Amino acid sequence: MIVNIVGGGPAELLPDLRQYDQENCVWVGVDRGVSILLEKGIIPALGFGDFDSVSEDEWREIERKVKGLKKFLPEKDEPDMELALNWGIEQGASEIRIFGGTGGRLDHFLANVQLLLKPIIQASQTVVMIVDQKNQLFLKQEGIHPIHRMPKKKYISFIPITNVENLSLIGFKYPLTNRHIPLGSTLCISNELNKDSGTFSFTKGILLVIRSCD
Fold first, then answer.
1. Geometric angle at alpha carbon 85, from 81 and 89, rounded to 5°
2. How many Å separate Cα 49 from the centre of its chain?
3. Which candidate among 13, 92, 187, 191 keeps its CA 20 to 30 Å from the CA of 210?
4. Residues 143 and 197 reside in one and the same domain
5. Buried-state track 112-129, b at ≥16 Cβ within 10 A, e below 16
6. What is the pLDDT of residue 78?
7. What is the DSSP track for the chain?
8. Tens-digit pLDDT profile for residues 167-187
9. Do the strands 164-170 and 2-6 form a parallel or antiparallel pair, or are they unpaired?
10. Whole-number CA gyration radius for the chain
11. Are residues 88 and 107 both part of a single domain?
12. What span, in angstroms and rounded, lies between the C-alpha atoms of 146 and 43?
């Protein structure tokens, strides 16, 4: 199962959601993200949030159209997006895509990036990524990882979340061999594949991988 979560970030930063509307996916709205989904003709299976960012008219439409609503008080420990992500991981989703999680408030964006760590902390096999019109973000742990060219997102950056040991990049315009990448390094910003596919590998640490276009 794939869970597609739509948050309340600026709608103009969303990709075309129809290309992610697969047979085995479940749509989930977070707060204003529920209204955004309804505007795009997608009725989510679930809606999470305190819904303090929707109007009274929008809330009435949400109540009428969405059967699975999980409404919370604004005073709570976890943000709405984290509640939705927790649900997806608990369902054993193979992949969770977060849309509407970029743009707008930087504190919300940075919190969403932190949420990418959830499956790693919980030793879950769920893959979580953040997707918008120009970017795709996900985390990788140590190992050998294949990566394929995406013509619409040709730039690839590797940002250390921890110190990273023995990073090697094969098939890239700027290759590396067994380099130590300390936390805070910007060495691996804006690389690109020079073949249809390549690999990145490292022996210790966590990398944030960002695939982008201009």
1. 175
2. 18
3. 92
4. yes
5. bbebbebbeeeebebbbb
6. 84
7. -EEEEE-SS-GGG---GGGG--TTEEEEEETHHHHHHHHTT---SEEEE--TTS-HHHHHHHHHH-SEEEE--SS-SS-HHHHHHHHHHHTT-SEEEEES-SSS-HHHHHHHHHHTTHHHHTT---EEEEE-SSEEEEEEEEEEEEEE--TTS-EEEEEESS-EEEEEEESBSS-EEEEEE-TT--TTSSB-BSSSEEEEEEEEEEEEEEEE--
8. 999 999 999 999 999 999 999
9. unpaired
10. 18
11. yes
12. 35
Domain boundary among 108, 133, 158: 133
Q: Domain limits at 168?
A: 137-212
Which is nearest to 4 in space by CA: 106, 103, 128? 128
Residues comprising the chain, all counted: 214
**What is the number of structural domains in the chain?**
2
Structure tokens given for 70: 């999980």
Domain CATH code at residue 174: 3.40.50.10240
- 209/71: higher pLDDT: 209
Is the domain of 117 the same as that of 142? no
Contact call for residues 193 and 158 (beta carbons, < 8 A):
no
Is there a single domain that holds both residue 191 and residue 204?
Answer: yes
- The region of weakest confidence among 17-21, 126-130, 141-145, 155-159 is 17-21
Nearest to 54 by CA among 62, 46, 44: 62
Residue 47's nearest CA partner among 21, 64, 18, 67 is 67
Could you give the angle at the alpha carbon of 209 between the alpha carbons of 204 and 40, nearest 5°? 145
